[in-house]
Write a structure and sequence with these properties.
Mean pLDDT of chain A: 88
Number of helices of chain B: 4
Strand order of the largest sheet of chain A: 3-2-1-4-5-6
Oligomer: heterodimer
Low-confidence stretches of chain A: 257-281
Radius of gyration of chain B: 18 Å
Shape of chain A: globular
Strand content of chain A: 5-15%
Strand content of chain B: under 5%
Structural class of chain A: alpha/beta
Shape of chain B: flat
Helix content of chain A: 55-70%
Chain lengths: 449, 94
């Protein structure tokens, strides 16, 4: 295959992938878009096999088939609950692959532009790998969920970054790879649970950038182009997540941490008091539930932890049978990855039309009859509007505080990840049903039968 | 213009195009989008194949395996997720 033909057909492959992305922006066509993306990628693979005349290489085919089978096996057995760590894991493998491509194609001795591009791809790929492994380990609870801040953490990361740049300048790929691995790890262990959506989308971005830069290094336009598209998409998602938390990226990645700050300057409310306060209005809870005509359900990471999504759906169905309108309010950073709640709820057959974004549903909290909070805390905390100086100040939150009645099915009334006490728990309009969300929801369901 | 300069330009243009395309995706689809993009980042399999031809073979083959896991796993997982997104009317039977 000539260079020119490869280029022309490569453009076709890229256009197919881009068309797939366009289709992925609507629910109806998203599945077709995903399939189209796979077709574009398959075409790119075939083109490269033809270009390099490797169609008859047994070793290469074995590698392709082994990867294919492993990928298919992983994808088939992963549960929806484990999706965040799965995405992180796959990200990491892609990053490592790009790093290996950059390392194995370098031609030592040449101080060319391609050489430096290759070293950069090696560094980004290795960072993505170790960072993703740390993130996946945290998400899978193999590593501590909380932020891990080493003594002199910032000094360590800055030092590593400096050494990393030096080893690019001095062209020391082995040292570079090790430094990049360390940097990725040190970077990712610092990020705590609720900031995970941001880390995941950032790592998604860097895995694309690693591929794109490797494409520059080996002189391949298809790899360059698609790598850059992935890099941009990850960055955009990261930006959206940051905006949803009203924090800058640097603040999230390099701060001493929301959790540490929050618990230092604000004592959590005594948990013993809260349930007592809840006893009084509990008597008329069945009546409130029965008379509700407009119900908004607010899920949070606690719903995922308690695996309460199908209990939520059962209760929502009961409300619907009684003639109530049920909607779900989804905060952009609820859960551990972008869109986490949507996936969990769609898995239990909640129609996606009932899922509302923050801006669309916030005006309706004041007029609805009942809000049901399932394992959400920071994303509904009214302190975000008022408590200056706390980590969540300025973050857009769901206006649950304005609702007529709120039933909170959380595990406890402790402050959330941000460490700021939530006034909603003490409000006279709030009925607390603490404990396992599944059990609390079953009790509510009983009151409705 | 040299190939490298041309590719750098392509990198920038693709980033902008990607940014503009993805801006339209609603937050409802953010997880599938992310995992779809994750699958696409496995495009580095193309680079790995080139590396088998031109570079150090064992490492390149390892890269092929890893990138293929990324691609196939990514697309399959995305498809599984998207299958779950159902509209109000059709959620009766399946």
């Amino acid at each position: 295959m000539t260079e020119k033909m490869y280029f022309t057909l490569g453009v076709v492959a890229v256009l197919i992938v881009l068309a797939g992305i366009v289709l992925m922006s609507r629910v109806r066509s998203a599945r077709a878009g995903n399939a189209l993306g796979a077709v574009g990628l398959a075409l790119a693979v075939v083109l490269m096999l033809l270009k390099q005349q490797l169609l008859s290489s047994g070793a290469l085919w074995t590698a392709l088939v082994v990867g294919l089978l492993l990928g298919a096996w992983l994808a088939a057995r992963v549960s929806m609950l484990a999706m965040p760590q799965m995405v992180a894991l796959l990200n990491g493998l892609g990053g490592l692959a790009s790093a290996l491509v950059a390392y194995s194609t370098r031609k030592p001795g040449e101080a060319s532009f391609e050489e430096y591009a290759g070293l950069l791809a090696l560094a980004i790929g290795m960072m993505t790998f170790s960072g993703s492994m740390a993130a996946a380990g945290k998400l899978a609870r193999l590593l501590p969920q909380r932020q891990v801040v080493l003594p002199g953490h910032s000094v360590i990361s800055s030092g590593l970054l400096l050494l990393l740049l030096l080893s690019i300048v001095w062209r020391q790929p082995e040292a570079l790879a090790i430094l990049a691995l360390l940097f990725g790890w040190v970077f990712a262990i610092r990020v705590g649970g609720a900031d995970m959506p941001i880390t995941i989308s950032l790592l998604n971005s860097t895995s694309g950038v690693a591929g794109g830069v490797a494409g520059i290094a080996i002189g391949d336009p298809v790899l360059t182009c698609i790598g850059a598209v992935v890099g941009a998409s990850g960055l955009l998602l990261t930006q959206i997540m940051c905006r949803a938390m009203n924090r800058s990226l640097l603040n999230i990645l390099f701060s001493k941490g929301a959790a540490a700050k929050g618990s230092a300057n604000s004592a959590p409310p005594a948990p013993a008091e809260a349930p007592a306060a809840a006893e009084a209005p509990a008597a008329d809870l069945p009546a409130i539930l029965r008379s509700a005509r407009d119900v908004i359900i607010v899920p949070g990471y606690g719903m995922a932890l308690a695996q309460a999504q199908s209990a939520v759906k059962t209760l929502a169905d009961r409300f619907a049978e009684l003639g109530a309108k049920v909607r779900y309010a989804i905060h952009p950073v609820a859960g551990r990855m972008p869109g986490h709640m949507n996936v969990l709820l769609c898995e239990v057959d909640v129609p996606y039309e009932q899922l509302y974004e923050l801006d669309d549903i916030n005006p309706d909290f004041a007029t609805c009859d009942l809000v049901l909070v399932i394992g959400a805390n920071d994303t509904i905390n009214p302190a975000a509007n008022t408590a200056e100086g706390t980590p969540i100040y300025g973050m857009p939150v769901l206006a649950v505080a304005e609702a007529k009645w709120t039933v909170v099915c959380n595990l406890d009334t402790g402050p959330g990840y941000a460490g700021v006490p939530n006034a909603i728990y003490n409000s006279p309009k709030t009925i607390l049903r603490l404990g396992d969300a599944k059990e609390s929801l079953a009790q509510l369901l009983q009151m409705l039968s | 213009m040299t190939l490298a300069a041309w590719l750098c330009l392509l990198f920038v243009v693709s980033s902008v195009v990607g940014y503009l395309l993805i801006r339209n995706v609603p937050s409802l689809l953010h997880t599938p989008l992310m995992s779809g993009m994750n699958a696409l980042s496995g495009i580095t399999v193309v680079g790995a194949i080139a590396a088998v031809a031109t570079g150090s073979r064992a490492l390149a083959l390892a890269a092929v395996v890893l990138a293929m896991i990324n691609v196939v796993g990514g697309f399959a997982v995305t498809d599984r997720m998207l299958k779950m997104f159902k509209a109000q009317r059709t959620n009766g039977n399946d």
